[in-house]
Amino acid sequence: MRTRASAAGAGAALAPVALLMVLVVLVAGCSTGQRVSLGGDRAGYLIAAIAGEPDQLDPHKTTAYFSFEVLENVFDTLVAPDANLEMRPALAESWTVSPDQLTWTFRLRSGVTFHDGSPLTAEDVVYSYRRIIDERLATADRFSAVADVRAADARTVVIRVHRPTPNLLTNIGGYKGMAIVSRRNVESGQIATHPIGTGPFAFADRASGDSITLRANAAYWGGRPGVAGVVFRFIPEPSTALSALQAGEIDWTDSVPPQRVAQLRNDDSVRLAVTASNDYWYLALNNARRPWSDVRVRQAIAYAVDRDAIVQVTSYGTAEANQLAIPHGNPGFTDYHRYHRDLGTARELLAQAGVERAELDMLVTADYPETVTAAQVIADNLAPLGITVRIRTVDFATWLDEQNTGNFDMLMMGWLGNIDPDDFYYAQHHTNGTSNAQRFSDPQVDRLLDAGRVEMNHQARRRIYAEAATRIADQVSYVFLYNSAVIQAWSPALTGFESRRDGAVRFRTATLAHGSAP
Amino acid sequence: MRRLLTHPVLRFVLRRLAYSAVVLFGVLVAVFTLMHLVPGDPVRIALGTRYTPEAYAALRAASGLDEPLPTQFVHYVSAAVTGDLGVSFRNGDPVTVVLLERLPATVSLAAVGILIALAIALPAGILSALRAGRPSDALIRVASQFGVSVPDFWLGILLIAVFASTLGWLPTSGYRPLTEDPAGWLRHIVLPALTVGLVAAAILTRYVRSAVLEVAASGFVRTARSKGLPPRVVTVRHIVRNALVPVLTITGIQLATILSGVIVVEVVFAWPGLGRLVYHAVAARDYPVIQGAVLLIGALFLLVNLIVDVLYAVIDPRIRLS
User: Fold this and answer.
1) Taking a C-beta distance cutoff of 8 angstroms, is the pair A471, A445 a contact?
2) Residue B292: its chain A contacts at CB < 8 A?
């Protein structure tokens, strides 16, 4: 009796399972396993996967790297860095500096139009710069030396500065946050969601949480792009992005798990670029608190930290250890390696400072997982010195608060996208620097950084910064750790793309070989 | 009309809706207060790590954050009752638009996920209970224990490895709107919905099994059998129907949970649902988006509960709506 009842019940109950299986087979049957997910109107579009969604698309207001990956292709600046990060003509075809070094005159390229067809004029440049200055946007400090911006005629922009400014070109061209925007686009309130630029690609569409689509700007002043458009898909999980690349669903990604790099190097189905970048990671000790106010204690920590181990655990060896900020191969590079790991010297310095035991509150954030990972190595490195590291992991919003109020003994963070030595050192290490959270103050460093800001002679300027950087590391304003790598992977069908050390993702020169996607 | 308004189901629904409004207001007060108590400054996050004090003050004033908290609350609520949930701090998009953009993906995933869960859990749970103690029961119990224990990110990555990378049957990730591309929608939803559905199925199977076991042991089932009713009728009409009431409760909770965002699945499959939206809004302390999303999720929870309560009465007429 019971057997029959259960058999009947089970038979009826199994029907939905059968239905489900039929459904799965049907779905699988109608898919071809190729990149069919985009409609026919997207044929010839390059599909790039980035790890997150831009918060907004107003280049003057966003600070998110994901935004700039997209905006790099939509907007132009007056000048732009080449592969060696030297500033080259972009919207400005030439410029001159007055003999007193206080007036810069830029000649605009003729025939440049915005994506809505309106011509680019000097007034647009003036409007863009005045917007940053007058609205006190986050990038306004790049104009701290600027006294006045005006249009002399439709194709001539004149920038007057208070003092000689050797890094003016880097300030206006090294960062897409200084892009030339359209006044109409700003005033209509559309720029944050539907930006209009002069770049090689025009904004076409956005699907919240999913993707942003750009289409090629055939009238681009630098030449028509090699692909019909670019779809930036947001794929936060690196292993998914890699699977999507290997399955031929996407053509390019920088969402690559570093632990897979070694394996991908030997994978013919994927092109991989691991490029040393200008980004750097550091430790900062709170100079306003004892005993870290004592330079000998800071030096002891610099001697005790094992940079190579930190590079291994945070990047699987893709990063490069560095005792200063500016990486090897950069014009501003200074050779410096005082702090090889040496516990004997570290103990001696602590003894001189009269420190036997100490507790250290280390502030890290899970939003930058490398800081959490490195903190464990550092805690282990400092234990033999009698320094007990208490790792405090918070979210980035809290981290910013704590950093700002000086509530930490030590923190770890990175600086991204710097080009000029002034970017690397002034805000962080000058007594009045806006990013000097560690409260470092050294008259000699201040004097050197002030001098570097106005020194127009290239050689003299390099010497000033080499001296400043050495002094900053000797006095341990930061314990510099490493330069991280830009890791990008793309399909063999994609050619003409160049991985850059400033992390700028430019697709204008990229082309796709059709039909070769698996 | 008068008769319609006095219909017990409608009266019940109307009363519950009024009660829901009170609950939602309470939720709003709690979220508003808590979010402002949590450390983290939205202006600082928006500006990044390099900015001047002037830039900070300017953005703070522009966001209305320099006003006293009670004033901000009054402004927010008086706009919210007219359907204006404010604009995102991050890009100035109206919050209602931001939420409505994400809702279809979330509803799709929840609906298909819960259907898959039911399609597996109902037969498996019933079979397991009816064959309690047999090998098939043991197998199903082990499988459901496994399903409960498996982390969803691992299951998701495994499904991608098998069905997308190796077999190439389905896309690894992404989403297509049902209205624009039904075939694409279906192809893209299978793997994430399976991930959500399998985990939910494992939980549901155990509830179905114990509910069926409990009902099968009750007096009226024995009476029905002794009356000589065919076994199939006893199973379907007496046992399963009565066991559905507790199962419905837990299904409702599962559905509401998936609706409020399955962040891990959304991350693994790059699914544009509410979960990731809320996560990023919290990370940026984007108060208007967080408040709007919590209101929406609260409303979805209350709606699912209401539907479940109405369904109780449909399944079991002895249950009164009061």
Assistant:
1) yes
2) none
